[in-house]
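Hello again,

I reread your note about wanting to compare the complex against the isolated chains. To keep things tidy I'm splitting this into two emails, and this first one only covers the full assembly. Below are the input lines as submitted, including protein chains and any nucleic acid or small-molecule components. They are followed by the predicted structure of everything together. The single-chain runs will come separately.
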Amino acid sequence: MVMAFEGYGIDFAPLFSGKLVRQVGGVPYYSGGIFPTPIFYLDALRLGQFPKLLENTTLFAAVGIAVALAAGVIAAYALARPPIRGKGAISYLLLALRAVSPFAVVVPLYIVFTRNGLWDTYIGVGLAEDLVVLSIVVWMLRGFFTDIPKEIYEAAAVFGATEGQIFRRVALRMVIPGIVVTALFAWVLIWNDFAISDIMTGPATKSVAVGVWSGLGQLALRQVSFDDLNAGGFLAWMPAIAVMLAIRRYLAKGYSLGTASSKA
Amino acid sequence: MVIPESLGEALTTKTPRHTENYAYWYLALVPLFAVLALVEFYPLVDGIKLSLTGSSGGLSLSNYGQMLGDSAFWSAVGVSLVYTAGSTVMCVAIGLGLTFLVTQRVRGRSYFEAIYIFPLALSPIVAGVLWSPSSVWDDIQTFSHFILHQPYFNELAVGFYFPVMMLSEAWEWAPLIMLVALSIVNSQSSKVFEAAEVHGASAWQKFTMVALPGILRSPVMQFIIVLRMIDAMRAFEVPLAWANWVGYQQTVGTPVDTVSLFLYKLIFYPIYGFPIGLISAIAVSLLVVTLIVAFALIRLLGRALPISGGR
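Full-complex prediction:
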Protein backbone atom coordinates (compact mmCIF):
# COMPACT_ATOMS: atom_id res chain seq x y z
CA MET A 1 0.00 0.00 0.00
CA VAL A 2 2.76 2.36 0.97
CA MET A 3 4.37 1.57 -2.31
CA ALA A 4 1.26 2.33 -4.36
CA PHE A 5 0.92 5.76 -2.80
CA GLU A 6 4.58 6.59 -3.10
CA GLY A 7 4.30 5.69 -6.74
CA TYR A 8 1.54 8.24 -7.12
CA GLY A 9 3.80 10.88 -5.68
CA ILE A 10 1.64 11.07 -2.60
CA ASP A 11 3.66 11.80 0.44
CA PHE A 12 2.12 11.35 3.84
CA ALA A 13 4.81 13.23 5.68
CA PRO A 14 3.56 16.79 5.02
CA LEU A 15 0.21 15.80 6.49
CA PHE A 16 1.84 15.26 9.84
CA SER A 17 4.50 17.94 9.89
CA GLY A 18 2.07 20.75 9.26
CA LYS A 19 5.00 22.76 8.00
CA LEU A 20 5.32 21.12 4.64
CA VAL A 21 8.70 19.86 5.71
CA ARG A 22 9.77 16.31 5.12
CA GLN A 23 12.82 14.29 5.89
CA VAL A 24 15.07 13.10 3.10
CA GLY A 25 17.82 10.88 4.37
CA GLY A 26 17.62 12.55 7.75
CA VAL A 27 17.82 16.07 6.32
CA PRO A 28 14.71 18.25 6.51
CA TYR A 29 13.52 19.46 3.13
CA TYR A 30 10.71 21.73 2.13
CA SER A 31 7.99 19.73 0.50
CA GLY A 32 5.48 21.13 -1.92
CA GLY A 33 2.66 19.25 -0.31
CA ILE A 34 0.43 16.56 -1.67
CA PHE A 35 -0.14 16.40 -5.36
CA PRO A 36 -1.39 13.00 -6.37
CA THR A 37 -0.28 12.38 -9.90
CA PRO A 38 -0.09 9.34 -12.13
CA ILE A 39 2.95 10.84 -13.83
CA PHE A 40 5.36 8.32 -12.31
CA TYR A 41 3.29 5.43 -13.57
CA LEU A 42 3.11 7.01 -17.02
CA ASP A 43 6.88 7.50 -16.87
CA ALA A 44 7.41 3.88 -15.94
CA LEU A 45 5.21 2.79 -18.82
CA ARG A 46 6.75 5.09 -21.42
CA LEU A 47 10.29 6.10 -20.48
CA GLY A 48 10.91 2.98 -18.41
CA GLN A 49 9.79 0.91 -21.38
CA PHE A 50 7.71 -1.24 -19.14
CA PRO A 51 5.89 -3.00 -22.02
CA LYS A 52 9.23 -3.99 -23.55
CA LEU A 53 10.45 -5.37 -20.21
CA LEU A 54 7.17 -7.23 -19.86
CA GLU A 55 7.58 -8.75 -23.31
CA ASN A 56 11.17 -9.79 -22.56
CA THR A 57 10.30 -11.43 -19.27
CA THR A 58 7.29 -13.19 -20.76
CA LEU A 59 9.32 -14.58 -23.63
CA PHE A 60 12.24 -15.95 -21.67
CA ALA A 61 9.96 -17.18 -18.90
CA ALA A 62 8.01 -19.05 -21.57
CA VAL A 63 11.23 -20.68 -22.81
CA GLY A 64 12.31 -21.56 -19.28
CA ILE A 65 8.94 -23.01 -18.30
CA ALA A 66 8.56 -24.92 -21.57
CA VAL A 67 11.98 -26.54 -21.13
CA ALA A 68 11.33 -27.29 -17.46
CA LEU A 69 7.97 -28.90 -18.22
CA ALA A 70 9.21 -30.80 -21.26
CA ALA A 71 12.02 -32.33 -19.23
CA GLY A 72 10.19 -32.31 -15.90
CA VAL A 73 6.76 -33.88 -16.41
CA ILE A 74 7.91 -37.30 -17.49
CA ALA A 75 10.85 -37.26 -15.08
CA ALA A 76 8.52 -36.37 -12.22
CA TYR A 77 6.29 -39.30 -13.14
CA ALA A 78 9.27 -41.65 -13.31
CA LEU A 79 10.30 -40.46 -9.84
CA ALA A 80 6.78 -40.78 -8.48
CA ARG A 81 5.39 -44.10 -9.60
CA PRO A 82 7.45 -46.82 -11.26
CA PRO A 83 9.49 -48.69 -8.65
CA ILE A 84 12.89 -47.91 -10.09
CA ARG A 85 16.07 -48.03 -8.11
CA GLY A 86 17.72 -44.84 -6.96
CA LYS A 87 14.78 -42.54 -7.41
CA GLY A 88 15.07 -41.43 -3.80
CA ALA A 89 18.70 -40.49 -4.40
CA ILE A 90 17.80 -38.62 -7.58
CA SER A 91 15.04 -36.73 -5.78
CA TYR A 92 17.47 -35.72 -3.06
CA LEU A 93 19.99 -34.65 -5.66
CA LEU A 94 17.36 -32.33 -7.14
CA LEU A 95 16.56 -31.04 -3.69
CA ALA A 96 20.24 -30.32 -3.10
CA LEU A 97 20.39 -28.44 -6.41
CA ARG A 98 17.53 -26.30 -5.10
CA ALA A 99 19.92 -25.25 -2.33
CA VAL A 100 22.75 -24.28 -4.67
CA SER A 101 23.37 -20.55 -4.81
CA PRO A 102 23.05 -19.21 -8.35
CA PHE A 103 26.38 -17.51 -7.80
CA ALA A 104 28.10 -20.88 -7.57
CA VAL A 105 27.23 -21.61 -11.20
CA VAL A 106 26.55 -18.32 -12.84
CA VAL A 107 30.11 -17.25 -13.66
CA PRO A 108 31.05 -20.37 -15.66
CA LEU A 109 27.58 -20.36 -17.19
CA TYR A 110 28.05 -16.75 -18.21
CA ILE A 111 31.38 -17.62 -19.85
CA VAL A 112 29.85 -20.57 -21.73
CA PHE A 113 26.87 -18.52 -22.88
CA THR A 114 28.91 -15.55 -24.11
CA ARG A 115 31.17 -17.93 -26.02
CA ASN A 116 28.20 -19.60 -27.73
CA GLY A 117 26.15 -16.49 -28.35
CA LEU A 118 23.47 -17.49 -25.86
CA TRP A 119 24.00 -14.57 -23.51
CA ASP A 120 21.26 -11.95 -23.73
CA THR A 121 19.04 -14.16 -25.89
CA TYR A 122 15.60 -15.39 -24.86
CA ILE A 123 16.70 -19.01 -25.19
CA GLY A 124 19.86 -18.46 -23.15
CA VAL A 125 18.14 -16.56 -20.34
CA GLY A 126 15.27 -19.06 -20.35
CA LEU A 127 17.70 -21.95 -19.91
CA ALA A 128 19.54 -20.10 -17.16
CA GLU A 129 16.25 -19.51 -15.36
CA ASP A 130 15.84 -23.27 -15.21
CA LEU A 131 18.53 -23.08 -12.53
CA VAL A 132 15.84 -21.55 -10.34
CA VAL A 133 12.77 -23.47 -11.39
CA LEU A 134 13.73 -26.91 -12.72
CA SER A 135 14.12 -28.78 -9.44
CA ILE A 136 11.06 -27.04 -7.99
CA VAL A 137 9.00 -27.97 -11.05
CA VAL A 138 10.04 -31.62 -10.84
CA TRP A 139 9.37 -31.85 -7.10
CA MET A 140 6.02 -30.14 -7.35
CA LEU A 141 4.85 -32.35 -10.22
CA ARG A 142 6.14 -35.39 -8.41
CA GLY A 143 3.90 -34.39 -5.51
CA PHE A 144 0.90 -34.13 -7.86
CA PHE A 145 1.62 -37.55 -9.34
CA THR A 146 1.96 -39.20 -5.94
CA ASP A 147 -1.33 -37.58 -4.89
CA ILE A 148 -3.18 -39.69 -7.46
CA PRO A 149 -4.64 -42.62 -5.53
CA LYS A 150 -2.86 -45.89 -6.17
CA GLU A 151 -6.21 -47.58 -6.90
CA ILE A 152 -6.57 -45.57 -10.09
CA TYR A 153 -3.27 -46.88 -11.44
CA GLU A 154 -4.25 -50.39 -10.43
CA ALA A 155 -7.63 -50.09 -12.08
CA ALA A 156 -5.96 -48.95 -15.29
CA ALA A 157 -3.57 -51.89 -15.11
CA VAL A 158 -6.45 -54.28 -14.55
CA PHE A 159 -8.11 -53.00 -17.67
CA GLY A 160 -4.99 -53.89 -19.55
CA ALA A 161 -3.35 -50.50 -19.99
CA THR A 162 0.37 -50.63 -20.66
CA GLU A 163 2.71 -48.53 -18.56
CA GLY A 164 2.97 -45.98 -21.38
CA GLN A 165 -0.80 -45.80 -21.65
CA ILE A 166 -1.19 -45.39 -17.90
CA PHE A 167 1.16 -42.43 -18.05
CA ARG A 168 -0.34 -40.75 -21.12
CA ARG A 169 -4.03 -41.52 -20.75
CA VAL A 170 -4.47 -41.66 -16.98
CA ALA A 171 -1.78 -39.92 -14.97
CA LEU A 172 -1.02 -37.11 -17.39
CA ARG A 173 -4.68 -36.19 -17.83
CA MET A 174 -5.36 -36.22 -14.12
CA VAL A 175 -2.38 -34.03 -13.43
CA ILE A 176 -3.08 -31.32 -16.04
CA PRO A 177 -4.40 -28.85 -13.42
CA GLY A 178 -1.24 -29.58 -11.44
CA ILE A 179 0.88 -28.79 -14.49
CA VAL A 180 -0.91 -25.46 -14.92
CA VAL A 181 -0.37 -24.58 -11.24
CA THR A 182 3.29 -25.59 -11.49
CA ALA A 183 3.79 -23.47 -14.61
CA LEU A 184 2.21 -20.44 -12.95
CA PHE A 185 4.31 -20.94 -9.84
CA ALA A 186 7.46 -21.19 -11.95
CA TRP A 187 6.38 -18.04 -13.76
CA VAL A 188 6.22 -16.09 -10.49
CA LEU A 189 9.69 -17.33 -9.51
CA ILE A 190 11.15 -16.30 -12.86
CA TRP A 191 9.29 -13.00 -12.85
CA ASN A 192 10.72 -12.14 -9.44
CA ASP A 193 14.19 -13.50 -10.05
CA PHE A 194 16.87 -10.87 -9.97
CA ALA A 195 20.20 -12.62 -9.37
CA ILE A 196 20.27 -14.66 -12.56
CA SER A 197 18.49 -12.27 -14.88
CA ASP A 198 20.77 -9.45 -13.79
CA ILE A 199 23.78 -11.39 -15.01
CA MET A 200 22.27 -13.23 -17.96
CA THR A 201 20.23 -10.47 -19.55
CA GLY A 202 21.69 -7.59 -21.49
CA PRO A 203 20.02 -4.69 -23.26
CA ALA A 204 18.02 -6.98 -25.56
CA THR A 205 16.31 -9.18 -22.97
CA LYS A 206 16.28 -7.08 -19.80
CA SER A 207 13.71 -8.41 -17.34
CA VAL A 208 11.16 -6.45 -15.35
CA ALA A 209 12.96 -6.87 -12.02
CA VAL A 210 16.27 -5.77 -13.53
CA GLY A 211 14.61 -2.93 -15.41
CA VAL A 212 12.95 -1.57 -12.31
CA TRP A 213 16.18 -1.74 -10.38
CA SER A 214 18.45 -0.35 -13.10
CA GLY A 215 16.13 2.60 -13.50
CA LEU A 216 18.27 3.64 -10.61
CA GLY A 217 21.60 2.82 -12.22
CA GLN A 218 24.67 3.61 -10.23
CA LEU A 219 23.41 6.97 -9.06
CA ALA A 220 24.05 8.10 -5.54
CA LEU A 221 21.20 7.81 -3.07
CA ARG A 222 20.12 11.46 -3.16
CA GLN A 223 19.73 11.49 -6.92
CA VAL A 224 17.53 8.43 -7.09
CA SER A 225 13.93 9.05 -7.98
CA PHE A 226 12.14 6.95 -5.44
CA ASP A 227 8.83 7.85 -6.95
CA ASP A 228 9.91 6.23 -10.21
CA LEU A 229 11.36 3.22 -8.42
CA ASN A 230 8.22 2.70 -6.40
CA ALA A 231 5.94 3.13 -9.38
CA GLY A 232 7.97 0.58 -11.35
CA GLY A 233 8.11 -1.79 -8.41
CA PHE A 234 4.37 -1.55 -7.92
CA LEU A 235 3.68 -2.25 -11.59
CA ALA A 236 5.96 -5.29 -11.36
CA TRP A 237 4.27 -6.47 -8.20
CA MET A 238 0.69 -6.48 -9.49
CA PRO A 239 0.85 -9.37 -12.00
CA ALA A 240 2.73 -11.52 -9.48
CA ILE A 241 0.05 -10.87 -6.85
CA ALA A 242 -2.68 -11.76 -9.34
CA VAL A 243 -1.02 -15.06 -10.23
CA MET A 244 -0.22 -15.89 -6.61
CA LEU A 245 -3.81 -15.35 -5.56
CA ALA A 246 -4.97 -17.52 -8.42
CA ILE A 247 -2.83 -20.44 -7.26
CA ARG A 248 -3.08 -19.56 -3.58
CA ARG A 249 -4.18 -23.00 -2.42
CA TYR A 250 -1.05 -24.50 -3.89
CA LEU A 251 1.51 -21.97 -2.65
CA ALA A 252 2.46 -23.91 0.46
CA LYS A 253 2.84 -26.99 -1.68
CA GLY A 254 5.01 -25.18 -4.20
CA TYR A 255 7.39 -23.59 -1.74
CA SER A 256 7.67 -26.78 0.28
CA LEU A 257 8.52 -28.69 -2.91
CA GLY A 258 5.29 -30.65 -2.88
CA THR A 259 5.49 -31.84 0.73
CA ALA A 260 2.79 -29.67 2.32
CA SER A 261 -0.83 -30.55 1.71
CA SER A 262 -2.66 -28.30 -0.71
CA LYS A 263 -5.53 -27.71 1.69
CA ALA A 264 -4.62 -24.31 3.05
CA MET B 1 1.91 -56.54 -18.77
CA VAL B 2 -0.12 -59.67 -18.23
CA ILE B 3 -3.82 -59.10 -18.65
CA PRO B 4 -5.63 -61.06 -15.96
CA GLU B 5 -8.13 -63.53 -17.36
CA SER B 6 -10.79 -63.04 -14.73
CA LEU B 7 -11.68 -60.65 -11.96
CA GLY B 8 -10.66 -63.21 -9.38
CA GLU B 9 -7.26 -63.54 -10.92
CA ALA B 10 -6.93 -59.77 -11.12
CA LEU B 11 -7.57 -59.47 -7.42
CA THR B 12 -5.30 -62.28 -6.37
CA THR B 13 -2.43 -61.52 -8.73
CA LYS B 14 0.19 -59.71 -6.75
CA THR B 15 0.79 -56.26 -8.18
CA PRO B 16 2.44 -57.21 -11.42
CA ARG B 17 5.04 -54.47 -11.22
CA HIS B 18 7.35 -56.63 -9.14
CA THR B 19 7.77 -59.01 -11.99
CA GLU B 20 7.99 -56.44 -14.72
CA ASN B 21 11.09 -54.69 -15.87
CA TYR B 22 10.77 -50.99 -15.19
CA ALA B 23 14.28 -50.05 -16.21
CA TYR B 24 13.06 -48.24 -19.31
CA TRP B 25 11.66 -45.54 -17.05
CA TYR B 26 15.23 -44.38 -16.57
CA LEU B 27 14.94 -43.07 -20.13
CA ALA B 28 12.31 -40.66 -18.81
CA LEU B 29 15.03 -39.00 -16.76
CA VAL B 30 17.29 -38.36 -19.74
CA PRO B 31 15.83 -34.97 -20.79
CA LEU B 32 15.97 -33.77 -17.19
CA PHE B 33 19.61 -34.68 -16.84
CA ALA B 34 20.42 -33.19 -20.23
CA VAL B 35 19.11 -29.80 -19.08
CA LEU B 36 20.79 -30.20 -15.69
CA ALA B 37 24.08 -31.09 -17.36
CA LEU B 38 23.97 -27.89 -19.38
CA VAL B 39 22.89 -25.41 -16.72
CA GLU B 40 24.13 -27.02 -13.51
CA PHE B 41 26.69 -29.78 -13.74
CA TYR B 42 28.88 -28.34 -16.46
CA PRO B 43 29.16 -24.89 -14.84
CA LEU B 44 29.73 -26.50 -11.45
CA VAL B 45 32.56 -28.67 -12.73
CA ASP B 46 33.98 -25.74 -14.63
CA GLY B 47 33.80 -23.60 -11.48
CA ILE B 48 35.64 -26.23 -9.45
CA LYS B 49 38.29 -26.43 -12.18
CA LEU B 50 38.69 -22.64 -12.25
CA SER B 51 38.96 -22.52 -8.47
CA LEU B 52 41.82 -25.05 -8.55
CA THR B 53 43.73 -23.29 -11.32
CA GLY B 54 46.58 -21.16 -10.01
CA SER B 55 47.86 -17.98 -11.62
CA SER B 56 50.52 -20.01 -13.45
CA GLY B 57 47.81 -22.22 -14.96
CA GLY B 58 48.73 -25.32 -13.00
CA LEU B 59 46.80 -27.16 -10.32
CA SER B 60 47.00 -25.23 -7.06
CA LEU B 61 45.14 -24.34 -3.93
CA SER B 62 46.36 -20.75 -4.02
CA ASN B 63 42.84 -19.40 -4.69
CA TYR B 64 41.57 -21.03 -1.52
CA GLY B 65 44.59 -19.69 0.35
CA GLN B 66 43.82 -16.22 -0.94
CA MET B 67 40.19 -16.63 0.10
CA LEU B 68 41.07 -17.73 3.64
CA GLY B 69 43.48 -14.83 3.99
CA ASP B 70 40.94 -12.27 2.81
CA SER B 71 39.46 -10.31 5.71
CA ALA B 72 36.56 -9.13 3.51
CA PHE B 73 35.62 -12.76 2.97
CA TRP B 74 35.53 -13.53 6.69
CA SER B 75 33.54 -10.39 7.33
CA ALA B 76 31.04 -11.53 4.67
CA VAL B 77 30.78 -14.96 6.30
CA GLY B 78 30.01 -13.34 9.64
CA VAL B 79 27.41 -11.03 8.11
CA SER B 80 25.76 -13.96 6.33
CA LEU B 81 25.54 -16.01 9.51
CA VAL B 82 24.03 -13.20 11.57
CA TYR B 83 21.69 -12.32 8.72
CA THR B 84 20.55 -15.93 8.33
CA ALA B 85 19.88 -16.45 12.03
CA GLY B 86 18.18 -13.09 12.53
CA SER B 87 15.98 -13.12 9.46
CA THR B 88 14.89 -16.73 9.97
CA VAL B 89 13.89 -16.16 13.58
CA MET B 90 12.01 -12.97 12.66
CA CYS B 91 10.37 -14.69 9.72
CA VAL B 92 9.03 -17.55 11.84
CA ALA B 93 7.87 -15.12 14.55
CA ILE B 94 6.02 -12.88 12.07
CA GLY B 95 4.60 -15.88 10.24
CA LEU B 96 3.20 -17.39 13.43
CA GLY B 97 1.86 -13.98 14.44
CA LEU B 98 0.00 -13.75 11.13
CA THR B 99 -1.30 -17.27 11.66
CA PHE B 100 -2.70 -16.24 15.03
CA LEU B 101 -4.35 -13.16 13.52
CA VAL B 102 -5.91 -15.14 10.68
CA THR B 103 -7.21 -17.93 12.91
CA GLN B 104 -8.94 -15.36 15.14
CA ARG B 105 -11.15 -14.26 12.29
CA VAL B 106 -14.41 -15.95 11.71
CA ARG B 107 -15.72 -13.80 8.91
CA GLY B 108 -13.59 -12.54 6.05
CA ARG B 109 -10.80 -14.89 7.00
CA SER B 110 -9.89 -15.72 3.43
CA TYR B 111 -9.65 -12.03 2.49
CA PHE B 112 -7.16 -11.40 5.26
CA GLU B 113 -5.25 -14.49 4.28
CA ALA B 114 -5.10 -13.17 0.72
CA ILE B 115 -3.87 -9.74 1.80
CA TYR B 116 -1.19 -11.25 4.02
CA ILE B 117 0.13 -13.20 1.05
CA PHE B 118 0.99 -10.04 -0.93
CA PRO B 119 4.63 -9.70 0.24
CA LEU B 120 5.33 -13.21 -1.03
CA ALA B 121 4.64 -12.02 -4.58
CA LEU B 122 7.19 -9.24 -4.33
CA SER B 123 10.55 -9.49 -6.02
CA PRO B 124 13.16 -9.45 -3.22
CA ILE B 125 14.99 -6.56 -4.87
CA VAL B 126 11.79 -4.50 -4.65
CA ALA B 127 11.50 -5.46 -0.96
CA GLY B 128 14.82 -3.66 -0.60
CA VAL B 129 13.33 -0.60 -2.33
CA LEU B 130 10.05 -0.67 -0.44
CA TRP B 131 11.73 -0.57 2.96
CA SER B 132 14.42 1.88 1.90
CA PRO B 133 15.02 5.09 3.87
CA SER B 134 13.48 7.30 1.22
CA SER B 135 10.39 5.16 0.74
CA VAL B 136 9.40 4.65 4.34
CA TRP B 137 11.80 5.76 7.03
CA ASP B 138 12.03 9.43 6.09
CA ASP B 139 8.27 9.67 6.38
CA ILE B 140 8.29 7.85 9.69
CA GLN B 141 11.00 10.22 10.92
CA THR B 142 8.96 13.23 9.87
CA PHE B 143 5.96 11.84 11.67
CA SER B 144 7.82 10.94 14.85
CA HIS B 145 9.63 14.27 14.95
CA PHE B 146 6.80 16.66 14.31
CA ILE B 147 3.92 14.80 15.92
CA LEU B 148 5.55 12.73 18.65
CA HIS B 149 8.38 15.24 19.20
CA GLN B 150 11.02 12.57 19.14
CA PRO B 151 14.60 13.40 18.22
CA TYR B 152 15.86 12.30 14.82
CA PHE B 153 17.62 8.98 14.64
CA ASN B 154 20.26 8.06 12.11
CA GLU B 155 18.73 5.81 9.46
CA LEU B 156 22.13 5.05 8.01
CA ALA B 157 23.67 3.69 11.22
CA VAL B 158 24.40 -0.03 11.11
CA GLY B 159 22.50 -0.62 14.35
CA PHE B 160 19.38 0.61 12.60
CA TYR B 161 19.65 -0.60 9.03
CA PHE B 162 20.92 -4.11 9.67
CA PRO B 163 17.83 -5.15 11.67
CA VAL B 164 15.72 -3.42 9.01
CA MET B 165 17.40 -5.51 6.32
CA MET B 166 16.70 -8.70 8.24
CA LEU B 167 13.16 -7.54 8.87
CA SER B 168 12.53 -6.84 5.17
CA GLU B 169 13.71 -10.33 4.34
CA ALA B 170 11.57 -11.79 7.13
CA TRP B 171 8.54 -9.71 6.13
CA GLU B 172 8.72 -10.95 2.57
CA TRP B 173 8.77 -14.66 3.48
CA ALA B 174 6.62 -14.68 6.63
CA PRO B 175 3.41 -15.36 4.63
CA LEU B 176 4.94 -18.65 3.59
CA ILE B 177 5.33 -19.71 7.22
CA MET B 178 1.73 -18.57 7.71
CA LEU B 179 0.44 -20.65 4.79
CA VAL B 180 2.16 -23.80 6.00
CA ALA B 181 1.09 -23.18 9.60
CA LEU B 182 -2.51 -22.68 8.47
CA SER B 183 -2.50 -25.91 6.51
CA ILE B 184 -1.30 -27.67 9.67
CA VAL B 185 -3.87 -25.95 11.91
CA ASN B 186 -6.63 -26.91 9.46
CA SER B 187 -5.62 -30.53 9.74
CA GLN B 188 -5.67 -30.49 13.54
CA SER B 189 -8.74 -31.93 15.18
CA SER B 190 -11.34 -29.30 16.09
CA LYS B 191 -12.30 -31.38 19.13
CA VAL B 192 -9.04 -30.51 20.85
CA PHE B 193 -9.81 -26.82 20.42
CA GLU B 194 -13.35 -27.32 21.68
CA ALA B 195 -12.03 -29.14 24.74
CA ALA B 196 -9.60 -26.30 25.42
CA GLU B 197 -12.46 -23.83 25.10
CA VAL B 198 -14.58 -25.78 27.56
CA HIS B 199 -11.71 -25.62 30.00
CA GLY B 200 -11.71 -21.85 29.66
CA ALA B 201 -8.67 -21.32 27.49
CA SER B 202 -8.35 -17.87 25.96
CA ALA B 203 -7.77 -17.45 22.22
CA TRP B 204 -4.08 -16.81 22.86
CA GLN B 205 -3.77 -19.88 25.10
CA LYS B 206 -5.54 -22.02 22.53
CA PHE B 207 -3.05 -20.85 19.95
CA THR B 208 0.14 -21.19 21.97
CA MET B 209 -0.75 -24.32 23.92
CA VAL B 210 -2.82 -26.31 21.47
CA ALA B 211 -2.03 -25.23 17.91
CA LEU B 212 1.59 -24.14 18.27
CA PRO B 213 3.19 -27.40 19.46
CA GLY B 214 1.62 -29.18 16.51
CA ILE B 215 2.82 -26.52 14.09
CA LEU B 216 6.41 -26.57 15.32
CA ARG B 217 6.60 -30.34 15.54
CA SER B 218 5.33 -30.77 11.99
CA PRO B 219 8.09 -32.07 9.69
CA VAL B 220 6.76 -29.95 6.84
CA MET B 221 7.14 -26.82 8.96
CA GLN B 222 10.66 -27.78 9.98
CA PHE B 223 11.47 -28.48 6.35
CA ILE B 224 10.18 -25.04 5.29
CA ILE B 225 12.25 -23.36 8.01
CA VAL B 226 15.34 -25.22 6.82
CA LEU B 227 14.70 -24.13 3.24
CA ARG B 228 14.27 -20.55 4.44
CA MET B 229 17.62 -20.76 6.25
CA ILE B 230 19.32 -22.10 3.16
CA ASP B 231 17.85 -19.25 1.12
CA ALA B 232 18.84 -16.69 3.74
CA MET B 233 22.39 -18.03 3.65
CA ARG B 234 22.63 -16.92 0.05
CA ALA B 235 20.64 -13.71 0.55
CA PHE B 236 21.55 -11.18 -2.03
CA GLU B 237 18.83 -8.82 -3.26
CA VAL B 238 17.93 -6.98 -0.05
CA PRO B 239 21.60 -6.47 0.89
CA LEU B 240 22.31 -5.25 -2.65
CA ALA B 241 19.56 -2.64 -2.36
CA TRP B 242 20.85 -1.52 1.04
CA ALA B 243 24.42 -1.33 -0.25
CA ASN B 244 23.08 1.44 -2.47
CA TRP B 245 21.14 3.20 0.27
CA VAL B 246 24.06 3.31 2.68
CA GLY B 247 26.72 4.08 0.07
CA TYR B 248 28.63 0.81 -0.05
CA GLN B 249 28.01 0.24 -3.77
CA GLN B 250 31.53 -0.96 -4.48
CA THR B 251 33.33 -1.33 -1.16
CA VAL B 252 33.62 -4.85 0.22
CA GLY B 253 33.86 -6.05 3.80
CA THR B 254 31.07 -3.72 4.93
CA PRO B 255 28.18 -4.67 7.24
CA VAL B 256 25.84 -5.19 4.25
CA ASP B 257 28.12 -7.64 2.43
CA THR B 258 26.74 -11.14 2.63
CA VAL B 259 28.81 -13.79 0.88
CA SER B 260 26.61 -13.57 -2.22
CA LEU B 261 26.82 -9.79 -2.39
CA PHE B 262 30.59 -9.98 -1.91
CA LEU B 263 30.75 -12.33 -4.90
CA TYR B 264 28.49 -10.04 -6.92
CA LYS B 265 30.76 -7.07 -6.30
CA LEU B 266 33.86 -9.06 -7.24
CA ILE B 267 32.13 -10.10 -10.47
CA PHE B 268 30.70 -6.74 -11.45
CA TYR B 269 33.12 -4.02 -10.45
CA PRO B 270 36.28 -3.70 -12.54
CA ILE B 271 38.23 -2.26 -9.59
CA TYR B 272 38.65 -5.82 -8.32
CA GLY B 273 40.09 -6.97 -11.66
CA PHE B 274 37.64 -9.91 -12.04
CA PRO B 275 39.64 -12.40 -9.91
CA ILE B 276 38.05 -15.46 -11.53
CA GLY B 277 40.04 -17.93 -9.42
CA LEU B 278 39.05 -16.27 -6.16
CA ILE B 279 35.42 -15.89 -7.28
CA SER B 280 35.25 -19.58 -8.14
CA ALA B 281 36.91 -20.59 -4.88
CA ILE B 282 34.35 -18.63 -2.86
CA ALA B 283 31.49 -19.93 -5.00
CA VAL B 284 32.64 -23.55 -4.56
CA SER B 285 33.08 -23.10 -0.79
CA LEU B 286 29.62 -21.56 -0.56
CA LEU B 287 28.27 -24.49 -2.52
CA VAL B 288 29.97 -27.09 -0.33
CA VAL B 289 28.82 -25.47 2.91
CA THR B 290 25.24 -25.12 1.67
CA LEU B 291 25.16 -28.72 0.53
CA ILE B 292 26.56 -30.02 3.82
CA VAL B 293 24.02 -28.02 5.82
CA ALA B 294 21.21 -29.03 3.48
CA PHE B 295 22.06 -32.72 3.64
CA ALA B 296 22.61 -32.75 7.39
CA LEU B 297 19.27 -31.09 8.05
CA ILE B 298 17.38 -33.14 5.50
CA ARG B 299 18.79 -36.34 6.93
CA LEU B 300 17.72 -35.17 10.33
CA LEU B 301 14.19 -34.47 9.17
CA GLY B 302 14.04 -36.77 6.18
CA ARG B 303 12.54 -39.80 7.90
CA ALA B 304 9.53 -37.90 9.16
CA LEU B 305 8.86 -36.13 5.89
CA PRO B 306 6.41 -37.41 3.34
CA ILE B 307 9.02 -36.77 0.65
CA SER B 308 10.49 -40.19 0.49
CA GLY B 309 7.03 -41.06 -0.86
CA GLY B 310 6.23 -42.73 -4.09
CA ARG B 311 5.36 -46.32 -4.25
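For quick reference: Residues 53 and 61 of chain A are 12 Å apart (CA to CA).

B.
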